[in-house]
Amino acid sequence: MNEEIIKARDQALAQARKQLNISNYRVERFFDRMLQDEKEIIFALAQVNQMDQVNPGKKPKYLRDFTREGIRKIAKAYQKIRKISNRLPQCISINEFYLIDEEVNYANRNY
After folding, report:
1. Are 3 and 9 in contact (CB under 8 A)?
2. Who contacts 55 (Cβ-Cβ below 8 Å, separation ≥6)?
3. Roughly how many angstroms between the first and final C-alpha of the chain, as a whole number?
4. Which residues pair with 54 in a beta bridge?
5. Which pLDDT band holds residue 111 (cuts at 50, 70, 90)?
């Protein structure tokens, strides 16, 4: 694709998002579409409180409901989740967490 085609495509996408009342920014779009229980996990990890909200009496629903400090805390929480997630084995199952090697003696570890 040449630059003109890419620019025209991006402008068309931006216009379509505006008509659908959707943010042009991918992080804001992602956050705003998250399920509320997923957001609650992020809020807990981020340790956001009412002081981090634009309107402290209102339950936050969108990223724009937070102050810059609240958004910074949420961004850091996302980074933590991503870091942990990247370290997990792929296709991990719940049953694998029940597999405990009873022969391992953690008292004898050198690290």
Report:
1. no
2. 65
3. 53
4. none
5. low
| Burial grade of 28 (CB within 10 A; 0-12, 13-18, 19 or more) | middle
What's the CA angle centered on 64, arms 72 and 15, to 5 degrees? 120
The string of pLDDT tens digits covering residues 26-75 is 999 999 999 999 999 999 999 999 999 999 989 999 999 999 999 999 99
- The rounded distance, in Å, linking the Cα atoms of 52 and 48 is 6
Compute CA 4 distance to the chain's CA centroid, rounded to the nearest angstrom. Answer: 33
Return the HEC string of 7-27: HHHHHHHHHHHHHCCCCCCHH
- Please, which contacts does 2-10 make with residues 24 or more away whose CB atoms are closer than 8 Å? none
Token pair of 70 as six digits: 């609240």
In this prediction the pTM is 0.76
Structure tokens at 25: 């920014």
Backbone angles phi, psi at 66, to 5 degrees: -110, 150
Partnered with residue 66 across adjacent β-strands are 53
